[in-house]
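Case study 2.
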Amino acid sequence: MRSSILVPVLLCALVGVLAGCSGSGQLTYSGPEDAYQKGVSQMEEGDHQQAIRLFRAVFEYGRGNQWAPKARFKLAMAQRGLGKHLVAANEFKRFTELYRNNELLPRAEFERANSYYLRSPKYRLGQSASRQAISLFRLFIDRYPNHELIPEAKKKINELRAKLAHKKYAAGELYERREMWEAATTVYEDTFDQYPDTPWADNALLGAVRTYIRYADRSIQKKQAERYQKAIENYNRLTQLFPESKFLDEAETFYSEAQRKLDRVQARDGQQSIAQEDTSRGSK
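Prediction:
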């Protein structure tokens, strides 16, 4: 008698425990639209992990169902909400492969580029994500020249290019500190040549002026004149292309030094040439 009463009680308790567990982890939805809408609600509440589960549930009804494209797009955005930018980029790429004619395609291509932009680290670190973002933003601009997100894409390209210029300029500074003058001149000039439209362009030209002088100072006699001349050429580029640069006063000081040393070297070379001619005549 006692055991017959105890069994239903235990069953009720067990059912209660199972109901509580299923309520905390099991998804409930009546169809793809319901799963999608609940996923959106979870995203708005900040539960991106639960939103991802619900968006994936939409695909149980076939990736061609009406709500699948929106769910795929939101799934990528939810991954971004978790800080998984590379995963998000891959999800956006997957969208572009599956839904070539969907109205969200341009936005998906932009957000794929944006995912790499968000992965771009500080300038001192590797910049592969920055380069990938630039490439994808440019592709977006080429494909959708009239899209409303074009100004934002261009702004982010400029920001990323400035970061790449900063990294390259910093390499020039490193060579300069180590007194590796030839490498420093090359890197500073490359910084300007590759990123002339960035905030680092005029500073790079100043670096080229400065390091060409030091490079020439330490060069053999027959190479000095051409290297002082290179310093002067970079100064001329700086003044012509950036007439409002804050570095002009400093650059002018280096220009005067380069010109003075070039004059001295040319005078020396001229005297040596005359002496050689005199010696040649005397030997005849």
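Confidence is low (pLDDT under 50) at residues 1-24.
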